[in-house]
Structures are given as structure tokens and as C-alpha cells.
Amino acid sequence: MKPFDDTYFMKKAFQEAQRAYEKGEVPVGAVVVAQDLVIARAHNLTETLTDVTAHAEMQAITAAANLLGGKYLDKCTLYVTLEPCVMCAGALGWSQMGRVVFGAYDAKRGFSNFAPNALHPKTEFMGGVLADECGDLMTAFFQERR
């Protein structure tokens, strides 16, 4: 068994989601991994930046591309705690992200319901990694605000 598996990196993304939660942001976190190293960390900043595009995935894509000095992330994996929305899936497609792994499915806004072909054709993706933990954090967040 690899010491750095999908669960290990999803836990890193979950830590970012917890940071978002603490800031009053919708608790979505993301990390970008290249060669078993986390090269970018991010969480939702839509409230902080008053920017509807400031999703965790968008922040992580930008940080990874800046670090690597190029817009294509085909040798990277994005771990994100919630299934990406259509906007984020489109950005992931343009970045040619090699792999996308997400936690909880998003029945209301997830890309797989609305634009299942938004990712690059070579991008591998899978959902459900730590789905319960990721979903529970989202549920707790919205229950507190009702």
C-alpha cells in the first residue's frame, strides 16, 4: 500500500475545507498534487473576496499553474471535498488536469449532472473519497445558518 493514497490527500483537502468553515465560507477545500507532493492548497474565498468565481478549485488551479510556470496541469491531481460545479469543471478541463478526485457528490450543482463532458477527455475522475466526512461538514455549515 502506498503511504500517499487518495484518502491521505483528501484529508489535506478536508483541512482546507475546515479553514473555510472557520472563516464562514462554504466549506470546500482543495489541494493539487504532483509527484506525491502537495503543490497548491486552497479553500473557498467567495465571501472574503466578494467574488463568485473564488471557488477552492479555481484558487488551487491558479496557485498550481503559477508554481509550475504553465497553464497545463496534466501531470497533477486535484483533490477537492465537493464535486466541482460546471464552472470549476470547465476550468479543470482547460487546465487539462490529469486527475480529479472529489469527496461528496453535489446533486444540486455538481458538473456530472449538467456537463459530464466538461473535463478534458484524458482527465480521470472519481468521487466518493471521504464522502461522509466531506458531506457532514457541508451539512453542519448550512444547518448553522438556517
Shape: globular
Question: Which regions have little confidence, pLDDT < 50, spanning 5+ residues?
Answer: none
Q: If you compute it from the alpha carbons, what radius of gyration comes out, rounded to the nearest whole angstrom? A: 14 Å
The strand count comes to 5
Proportion of residues in β-strands: 15-25%
Distance between the termini: 43 Å
Q: Give average pLDDT, whole number.
A: 96
Largest sheet: 5 strands, mixed
Share of residues in helices: 25-40%
Strand order of the largest sheet: 2-1-3-4-5
Describe how the helices and strands are arranged.
Layout: H1 6-22, E1 29-34, E2 37-43, H2 56-68, E3 77-82, H3 86-95, E4 99-104, H4 111-114, E5 124-127, H5 131-144
Helix pairs in contact: 1-5
Summarize the structure.
The chain is α/β, with parallel strands linked by helices and 146 residues long. 40% of the residues lie in helices and 20% in strands.
Task: Describe what this molecule looks like in 3D.
This protein is an alpha/beta fold. It has helices at residues 6-22, 56-68, 86-95, 111-114, 131-144, and strands spanning 29-34, 37-43, 77-82, 99-104, 124-127. The chain has a 5-stranded mixed sheet. Strand 4 (99-104), helix 4 and strand 5 (124-127) form a beta-alpha-beta unit. Helix 1 (6-22) runs parallel beside helix 5 (131-144). The protein is globular. The mean pLDDT is 96.
Tag the structure with descriptive keywords:
five-stranded mixed beta sheet, 5 helices, alpha/beta
